Amino acid sequence: GRGRGRGRGRGRGRGEGRGRDAGRGRGGGGRGRGRGDNQNRGGGRGGRGRGRGGDKSKQQPHLVEEPMIDDNHNIAENTATTSPMDTGAASPPDTSTTITSKDPKPKDGNNSKKSNKKNKKKKQESAGGGTKKDPNLNNDNNQGQQNEKQNDEKGPRKNEAKKKNKSKQKKQDSVVEDSANSKNDDQSAASNRNQDKKNNKKKSENSNKSKFNNKTSDNNANTKPSIPPNEPQTTNDINYKRGNSITVLHIAEKPSIAQAIAKGLSKGTSFNNNSHSKLPIYELTTTASTQPFPKAPYASKCLHKVTSVAGHVFSVDFPSSYQSWDSVDPAELFNAPIQKKPCQGSVVKHLQSCSKNVDFMVLWLDCDREGENIAFEVLDCCMHLMNSSSDENYDRVYRAYFSAINPSDIQKAYLKLGKPDKNQSLSVDARQELDLKVGVAFSRFQTRFFQGRYGDLDSAVLSYGPCQTPTLGFCVKRHIDIETFKPEPYWLLNLGIVKRGRIIRAQWDSGRSFNQNKVQQLIQTCLEESTSTAKVTSIVSKDKKQGRPTPLNTVALLKACSKALGIGPHQAMQTAEHLYLSGYLSYPRTESTAYPKSFDVRDVLSQQAQDSRWGKYVADLLDKGHTKSRGGVDMGDHPPITPVRPAGTHELSGNMARVYELVTRHFIASVSPDACFKSTRVSINIESLKEKGNFTLRGKQLVSPGFLAILLHQEYGDEGDDDYEGSLIEDDTEEIQNLPEFTVGEEFYLTSGKKSSSKVDVVVTGSRATLDIKEKLTTPPSYLTESELISQMEKNGIGTDASIATHIENIQKRNYVELITGRKMKPSKLGLVLAQGYHQIDASLVLPKVRSDIESQCNKVAKGIANKDAVLKAAISLFEDKFKNFVENISKMDLLFSSSFSKLEDIGKPFTRCGLTRRYLQYITGPPARLYNTTTETVYPLPLGGVIKEWSGQKCPVEGCDFELCMYSVGQPQRTFPLCPNCFNNPKAEWGKIPGEENDLSSNPEDREDELKERQIRTVAGRAFTLECPHPDGHPLIKKYQIARDPESDGVFCMDAHFGPKWRLISTRSPTIIHLPKAISKITVLDRLDEDTSCHMLKIEYKADSTPLEGGETTYVTCFEKDEKLKEKSQTVHGNERTQHKGGRGGRGGRGKRGGRGRGGRGGRGRRG
After folding, report:
1. How far is CA 731 from CA 345, 742, 831, in A?
2. How many CB atoms lie within 10 A of CB 547?
3. For residue 763, which phi and psi values (nearest 5 degrees)?
4. Are 51 and 23 in contact, with CB atoms under 8 Å apart?
5. Are 374 and 411 in contact (CB under 8 A)?
6. pLDDT at 704
7. What is the DSSP letter of 736?
8. ∠ CA 1106-1108-1114, rounded to 5°
9. How far is CA 174 from CA 79, 177, 202, in A?
10. Which one, of 1079, 1077, 1052, lies nearest residue 1064 by Cα?
11. What dihedral angle (degrees, nearest 10) is formed by the CA atoms of 1006, 1139, 1000, 929?
12. Secondary structure class of 701 (helix, strand, coil)
């Protein structure tokens, strides 16, 4: 229809609109005419007039050429050039397409007030979720024909607004100022803010006013612009660099995804890889005519740079002053500061190098909360390096939402860019800080407390986790149910109908009875009557449907892999991610169980029509028409897990092939017809038993297989309720296949039958009935399967779809549970004691209620309806009180440990002598390994990662120590170092850098953070894995055997502690070994030092028959570092730092070393050791 409207401004204007509904115009003088494009909303200008056309319409895909101006002088984004119906990508937040621009205040006071009220109302609706928002406001194809003068006037209008800011008039401006950089200007700017700014003041005060990351990296010396917590985007000028070239930096989460993005953007053309490092940089160039950048469509040329990070850019940890397990009270950690440290300094440097002077940044991180968090980590380190150093940089940062990495999905995401969601990132920050503080505080305290008392705990760390511990609690609860279960006998009347050579067992409608005499009396009453019969009283047949499965989300996938494929949750998640990165599956972390309306089911089915395994079925399904998926919920994060490209029979192998087939078959089944059965119910009555004589036979017959024809693994699915009373075995309620035909009134004479638990038996011909008593026992529940445990966690809100598998993996790694036959989770002795101890001190530490409430609060933070700091403060305060109570009542848990584990003084074997008491120290194998003095009750932790051996007769040379030494062997091939237990636990500063500690770091700032992170990863129970010499190079024990310097590792070479017969020099800081000539029979390390190198001189004795010395001499003294001839005859080997030895190939006869060579036969190869 046509519409006419009146406008007002400085003068009076009139506009016309053409669309479905009436249009309205508004302007300042002149006459306007607008036309709605594609029966949508349109606008045009005549002078300063403006019109608006119709409303609701269907979108048609087309390329847009000009931006649209709405009634508030706002520019709507051109976020896509295709209809949203064509994309299966996750939709970006609605706020990402709401664009605010500046406009001078009209001179007309009355009109100005009305306009302000209207603008205020619109902005309040936008802040509150847009409850009255026009549904077509964010459509991508609602561009009308407009005069280019509108865009050309934006610059003058902006300058005019700046001039008016200096006058007494209030500035009309909706752009939120950066609170971190505007403290000095607040007083002067307050009088210039408009009414809208005042109305939004409360909301601004409640938002996060600081930078999105208060911790600035050492690599970022420049001041970074702050980012509003979750403000709508203030669009960059749609004419940004019109006619000029721009550079767009695309950042993915993994290198493989970066390559897929480059392929998708190139549309089959070639692109360059300008980096040979682990993080690639792909470059390609597009033009406005071939593929314009959606946010700057008028730029003549666009250089796309595609790179990636490697997961999280920063990690959350305590400062170095809180890292010590010995000197820091765990209670202090709840109020300790936290830092965000680069996971890898090279990644930060790479991002900063790539982002210099780029015009736009597009973030292609995984579309979940973790991905949003990584997005803001990326911005933290490089957004300030973009082409402009002002706050407007954030306006040129965009977020790509995608669920698959095939080229079509990449293009759809590229054409529909949104904005990063700060709220989701804040929820991740809150969870990370809470888990760090709570987990480390509890873990440090209970690990130190119990490992100092008991020696056979079978775990290096007694860890606590807000999600991990309730997960353990589910397993322990089921174990307690099993242990406390008391079987009870019960009795049933067992009616067997003999027909056509089969005995068919009918179910007794009265159910079980725990009174044996009652049941015996019934059967006696029946058999006393010689004419007793079992009579068919009714037959009811009806069609019964078995519903097709709902679409597959993450939790359902983990359960299916465990039940049907025997693949654990952690491995299943890794396999699904590998398939996703390889382009075979959609994103595997999703909560949705319904396909979005935009999802093209037919297209995905068509890709599978050529597969030899299910292609024929899919072709028939396409011909007949697929069925709409059943039930489910679209959570808006990602579509359910589906195949995105076909995989041939031999294209994948192992678990990847099995998981891909399960997902594909499940997807096909979810859009297939339901299975149909004919269900028959036969009611049988024994008249002499009156109301106790009713029995039922149930049968079913497949009529139409439906989805069952494609779904191989029908045994996986949703678990029922936790009803494990054991009242009836499964066969009692199962329907019988191919039930014989019965007629109403048919009678069967009763005879006494023998006891049988079979449902159908083959017997002699003839029709009759047998009646006897069946005795059974109630059965205990079984241990939780992985699938049932996942259901319990999901039901109680423990973990997320992305973290459930990790929590289950952790309780297995800690030896809290073990995986037994049937993929069932059985708690270990340690897991039982811990869970029961928590329950005695504070049951909420192990029950899911508290963690579920916290997860709920984090979800509110992610949705923007709860404040992150308030949620975090309340949760930390709660756990701090619980920790204090836990410490005060730790004796309750200690009683349980003392009854289950052996104390240190009762186990172990004499190993070495203590230098203080001269008594033998007990060697506790652990884990962790340690020495224990039964007299002083002192514990000496030993280094982890190697093998501890005795070295009798050798004492530490340190004055006042006098401890007997051990030998510590590590690496492959093994390097053996001397070890003093006392000096290892009490190092002195004058000895130099301590192995495994923070001060043993590279002086290179670029490598320092990397090495620090590696040491944090290897930390166990406060001590790092020691894969080198356990003592500093300045320790007297090391200096005593120092032979040469090792310039490659800044360490030294010393004599191997075995001292022959194979003489070797080993590096203290690298897996480097120097094998000395085999002709040497003996080496003595002299006390004399070489004046130039400060290394010990060697006295070398050669074998008489193979001496290389002149005149047949066999002995000489030398300095290895200066003896070039000796170096030439020596062989240098660079090993590795593996902590376990793997078998090799046997030699000629004899027996190889344990863990090294295998057992060899004469003249042949040996077996692997």
Report:
1. 62, 21, 35
2. 11
3. -135, -175
4. yes
5. no
6. 92
7. E
8. 75
9. 22, 9, 15
10. 1077
11. 140
12. strand
Tokens linked to 173: 């401006």
Q: Could you give the 3-state DSSP secondary structure of residue 874?
A: helix
- Give pTM, 2 decimals: 0.65
- Asked if residues 24 and 50 have their Cβ atoms less than 8 Å apart, the reply is no
Residue located via tokens 């039940």: 563
| DSSP conformation letters of 149-186 | HHHHTHHHHHHHHHHHHTSSSPP---PPP-TTT-GGGH
User: What's the token pair of residue 566?
Assistant: 């025997």
Token match 């194998």: residue? 925
Distance CA 419, CA 402 (A): 13
Tokens of 223: 């001041």
Token output for 550 = 């709902």
Q: What is the pLDDT of residue 766?
A: 58
Q: Judging by DSSP bridges, how do beta strands 502-508 and 760-762 pair with one another?
A: antiparallel
Contact 1125, 1131 (CB under 8 A): no
Q: Give the residue numbers annotated as catalytic, written as ranges.
A: 587
Sequence letter at residue 1083: I
Q: What is the pLDDT of residue 855?
A: 87
Residue in 147, 901, 143 with CA at minimum distance from that of residue 462 = 901
| 3-class DSSP assignment, residue 100 | coil
Nearest to 912 by CA among 991, 966, 847: 966
Residue with tokens 């939120």: 176
Contact 558, 790 (CB under 8 A): yes
d(CA 697, CA 617): 35
In angstroms, rounded to a whole number, what is the distance separating the alpha carbons of residues 993 and 978?
Answer: 17
Give exposure, 172-192, as e/b (b: 16+ Cβ within 10 Å). bbbebbbbbeeeeeeeeeeeb
Q: Are 1127 and 1043 in contact (CB under 8 A)?
A: no
Task: Give how far the C-alpha of residue 632 lies from the chain's centroid of Cα atoms, to the nearest Å.
Answer: 23
Q: How far is CA 915 from CA 179, 897, 919, 931, 1093, in A?
A: 62, 31, 8, 13, 33
Residue ranges in the chain modelled with pLDDT below 50: 1-233, 718-733, 755-765, 998-1010, 1012-1023, 1139-1169
pLDDT computed for residue 529 by the predictor: 75
Rounded Cα gap, residues 796 and 149, in angstroms: 59
Q: Are 902 and 464 in contact (CB under 8 A)?
A: no
Task: Provide the β-strand partners of residue 52.
Answer: 24
Six-digit token string for 1073: 């070994």
448 vs 565: CA distance, rounded Å: 40
